[in-house]
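[Solved] Which block belongs to which protein?

Original post:
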Amino acid sequence: MINFLGLCIQNLIKCIKYILTRQVRFSTIISQAASVSYDSLSISLIIAFIAAAVIAIQVSKQFLMSGADTYIGGTIAIVMIREIAPGFVALAIGARAGTAISAEIANMQVTSQVDAIKTLKVDPIGYYFTPRLLGAIFTVPMVVLIAEVVGIIGGMFVSNATIDLHPARYMNSVWLWLSTRDIYISLFKAAVFGGLIALVCATQGYETKGGAKEVGHSTTQAAILSTIYLLIADFVINLIFYIAK
């Protein structure tokens, strides 16, 4: 874990240098952004909607029994924005797009495509990593923002269906509880998570040696490592912004 983290940091530094030399193409970034986030949008929104619906089912009747039904919308909004949407969307993107990144780069490594790039005096880490890194950093927050809206609306529909909570009371609670700071932190989380997914999965793929069997193993390891690093990053960000403020 420590050695792999060191490799990720080294690759990140090389990507930054590659960005500063302005060698990365905008069209490549757009292509990778679509591959990372747009292709994962549907599954991310489904997960966000179901998560909000489950939370609404769990809290609605309990809040109604205690006379706190006006707090349901705010509770769901805070939970979705602070934790559920960034975390679940990142895990979904890591499982889908992250493993694809790892498998693609691992395949390039075992089929000597990376060596071919080196003969052209092109930095393979900058060439392969940078578009995926930038694409994930800029577009994962967009997916998270849409997922938050879908989750809050999903919670409204479920609350109305289960305890007949009027949408106006629900949304009024959302506006009272919600703050722009929570949204900013949520988007910051999403950007960090997106960068971690691209960096960890690309590094895992780049370190692959052998043949087809090792490509499959590398893909599995990428999913595991990206999940671990996402959870660690989530804990650190929460510690900084919500506990140590």
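(Second protein starts here: sequence line, then its structure tokens.)
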Amino acid sequence: MFSKFSFLIISTLLFLAGCQREIDMVQPSSDLPPAVPVGLIVAFADDGSVGLFWQSNSEPDLYGYNIYRSTDSLHFSAINFTSNNYYVDDSLNYNTIYYYRVTAINLGNKESLPSNIVSGKPINLYPPSQPLGLSINARNWEGNMSVYLSWNQNYEGDIYGFNIYRSVNPGFNSDSTNLIGFSKGIDFTDTLNLKLYTQYYYRIRAVDKGGLISTQTPEVNDEIYGVPQIIFPQDDAQTSYFSSFVIKAIAVPANYKIVVQDNKFFGTFWSTNFSSSVINDTISVSFNPDYINTDVPYYWRVATYSQGGSQPNSVSPLYKFIIKQ
């Protein structure tokens, strides 16, 4: 994982590119160990991460490098392998001094002697970056109301979690007065005192292991819809061929989807999407499948969608009907 200061590695790489040692004109053998890596430096040490950089070995049979770490400069343990000439060690303690050295490995699994030793103390200097990709889906599923939030993982190695903030007012500032939860992961489900047809606004902030907090995200918002009522055909209906479903619209204009299944648990036999400004009144929706069998069960439900999302906002119960000849 790259730290937020990984650009320093790139800068160092460009600076040292012209400083490579002369290539040994004798063709190396995989039976012999590679040369000792040279030029090992600590490119950065902060916020629980230490970035290392060294000059690339020139042997054509080079396989990569072993990274060794110690907390006393004497007893080193291998912590990782890399084929690059840089490495970022993260999720470290802020107040510990870490010592490093590097060895080279060739295709014959021969290992060089260790490089020089460098050290770094990754103290907590900077707050995390603002989380990105915050998305929202208000839900009224199977009688349970919730608002689901998800976002991208921060790249810092010392992230402890994320504070969740909520308001019913747009443009709010996230602070302790509207803090409603905390997540160790990259999603959160809010179930706290939710009401239908209320716009809820959310922001999040990242928190690191030292307690430093990021700037707030842009807000996202959504509202929980009521469940559309199924009028025709009713559950367990046995009916002749029909050309329209009938539902009762919810209390706000919305996007709808009707799905017909020939299996109770999965699969789509027929579906249609439509938008309607009708509120609290019946809507007829054309039903025009290419074919339909008689005397076999079909299952249908209605879902609503807010903001054009791919996840439904509210979902009706699943109803069964049978076409009789």
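Accepted answer:
You had them paired correctly. Confirming on the second one: Residues 229-323 form a domain with the Immunoglobulin-like fold (CATH 2.60.40.2550).
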